[in-house]
Amino acid sequence: MGPSKEPLKNHDIDSTGDVVAKLVSADDDNIELSTLRLSSKILSLVSPVFKSMLDPAKGFKESLLKPNGMKEICITAFSEKSTIVAMNILHYQPESLPGPTEVSSRELYNLASFADYYQCQRFLKLWTPIWAMPVWRIRSPSKNTARWLWIGISFQIPQITKDCAQEVFERMRLQGGKFLVDGKPFHDAMNKYTDVIWHQREKYIQQFTEKVESQYCNFENESKRKGVASRCDLIQLGTLKFLRLKTALPKCERDEMTFKEIFSMLRGSAEAGKDSQRS
Question: Could you say which of 82, 161, 173, 221 would form a disulfide bridge with 259 (CB–CB 3.0 to 4.6 Å)?
């Protein structure tokens, strides 16, 4: 006969709660981590997933009604600590929450994954910047960019999302347009963000092209009427012509043009603009 299985440690998030939640590791091994005592009313209010799990009519296999009236559910835990933190937030137990510097970026990532899985971001995002910003400020530049981007987007933290997006696309440029972040392929979930950025890129290039074309035509027509007055006019006319040639490219689809080519084109245009200002 094998050794007896030790009982799981219990955490009373709500001491009067009517739900016993068994935390099961999100990894393939499905290890049982601990149990939490929770409130079914709160869970149903903060998450449509928990609401369905606690509805007997839905027939969720992760949910069971015990003879004593207690509800038993299984919760997928991306880590035990992050799940306990999430439940303390959702049950408004601020005295049980860790301090501003006591949550690592990995636990924030796990918390973001939990929030996404159970669709409760709008409640957790009110607290997560308290832990995210202190760690973000002292992080090594360009380290764990994909992890931080997921945190920033999940909890709608503008500074983190913006800075990470810039790092991601700068790294893509250096890699010649390969969609890799931290050595891994760009996740399909990020396509909607890359689509927005590409749309904005095309819009700005089009506006820039039209502006340069308009200035070029005006300047050229004015020069024909009055004659070129000075060497400065010639330089300006040449610069405008250069910018027009540089930006007036056929519209390219994503697969036909690398980030390196795009940034090279825009950098050349910017440098030409600076040269014209010096002149």
Answer: 173
